[in-house]
What we know:
CATH topology of the largest domain: Alkaline Phosphatase, subunit A
Distance between the termini: 16 Å
Shape: globular
Order of helices and strands: EHHEHHHEEHEEHHEHEHEHEHHEEHEH
CATH superfamily of the largest domain: Alkaline Phosphatase, subunit A
Number of domains: 2
CATH class of the largest domain: Alpha Beta
Structural class: alpha/beta
Largest sheet: 8 strands, mixed
Strand content: 15-25%
Number of helices: 15
Amino acid sequence: MKYLxxxxxxxxxxxxxxxxxxxxxxxxxxxxxxxxxxxGTVGLVKTVPATLPPGSDVANLAxxxxxxxxYYTGRSPLEAASIGVDLKPDDxxxxxxxxxxSGEENYEDRTMIDYSAGEISTAEAAEIIKTIGExxxxxxxxxxxxxxxxxxxxxxxxxxxxxxxxxxxxxxKKIKDYLPNVPALLDLMKKSAEILxxxxxxxxxxxxxxxxxxxxxxxxxxxKPALSPFKEKYGLNASVLSAVDLVKGxxxxxxxxxxxxxxxxxxxxxxxxxxxNAAINELKNGADFVxxxxxxxxxxxxxxxxxxxxxxxxxxxxxxxxxxxxxxxDMGEDYTLLIMPDHPTPIALKTHTRTEVPFLLxxxxxxxxxxxxxxxxxxxxxxxxxIEEGHKLLSMIINNEI
Length: 402
């Protein structure tokens, strides 16, 4: 038996008034999704415990079968693992976003214009983080380059209690009430704004009509995680494919094979076919379990872009799932497909929620008959299958308990 999880990050949503109160999953043309729903199981699963924030870190841990209440130590340590930063037990890591703030004189009076600095390119961001590291980095505080707007700060020997806010939670809001409670972190953010004001990368971006990276934003504090190896836990050789360091970091911490695919991004412009072909190659070359993660629906949700979110879901159907189904047919081996988001990212809210998400489970050797079923939130609620503890879903699937 082969297993594949197709994870559309942030794919679930609320009904959209402008689209006859339908969600993007209902609106999108997804004939392959719906065909599998008619022959599989559709239900709801709660991926985010009440004790933790509704982030992709918590939710993806749960979908991969790890209890977030037991294993979660923060978001940025997972990203640190992905980019090869070796953490000591007393290190704290922080996500270091490049963001666009408005231009008021006082830093506290500014507004979060864009949590991703216009989805700045990795090459441009590398120049900015290099400058930040040279100007603000010390032996105690080190900056590390990541991908696009997502980077890291490591604070060696930190002994603080951190109260930090994700920048994507405060789009279009004044930042005054969401600034770090630790003066050292706030000082770094303020100094970065002065450094970046006349940075050559930003001058060039402004000339091209793009949002400049006007500040760093520090959040997602955490310490080194310790996940049980996936193979030890489930007895399967596992691979992870994602453009996002967070998801790759979970894979590395769980001793899964993290596959690097060229030309992939966390946006709708990613190479859907390239990543899909890489996943198929993993299945053909010894992987029993593949976690195939796409960030595009989440990014569109954060940007309040319904058309982009609908299109990204349609791409998952037409540019990903169709090729996977063809590949499984060629392999001639029984397989199990799990299709789901990690959490909702509603267009109207531009941030994550902890609401239950719809899942679609299909087994090639155990088809059912639900002729009226489709894959969306409404059908998932109507079908009555509900998993309260999301981290148990994967083990239930592997053990044929659902």
